[in-house]
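Our preliminary data section would be incomplete without showing what the modeling component actually yields. Below, a chain of 166 amino acids is followed by its predicted structure, encoded as tokens that our downstream tools consume directly.
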Amino acid sequence: MKLELKNIKHSDFASQETFCYEAKIYLDGKPLAHVENDGRGGSDLQLQHPSFTRSNFRKDFWDIMREIDKYFEDQPTKKVTFGDHTWDSQPSLESWCYDEVHKWLLSKDLKRSLKKGTLIQDGDKLLQWKGFIKSSEIKKHHPKAIIFNDLPFDKALETYVNSHTS
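Predicted structure:
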């Protein structure tokens, strides 16, 4: 099962307690659902994508959504920490959508940062300079640093996302 969140539209000013966004969920490369959240703390709304056809999936829309729910129920729980509190959280389609929107926003942020100059991670600190500095110069002062500009974008994004979630 390959899920993708595409065509993401996010409104920062309207995001209060949750992300205000809308997007399309694709399953195995085919449009499945439209998902949206108004950003005021409620749950996501998941509707059948206008291009969804039963012949593409050989199943009813809601049967597929139940299969996706079951898929997430079978996944291991994740440790979640908020402030001083930690708990186990069961993944769901809604939490997956949240994570994908968060990753998409961080991807945009990373792209902007990489265009502006040099970005590194030294330990748990992110450091940025306007303008580009040679990697050899950075390594003299930050020998253990990860230089985002030197990484393939996918690896840089993975590292950047991890620095924002740990």
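The first helix runs from residue 54 to 57. The helical segments are 54-57, 61-73, 93-116, 135-141, 153-165. Preliminary results of this kind motivate Aim 1 of the renewal.
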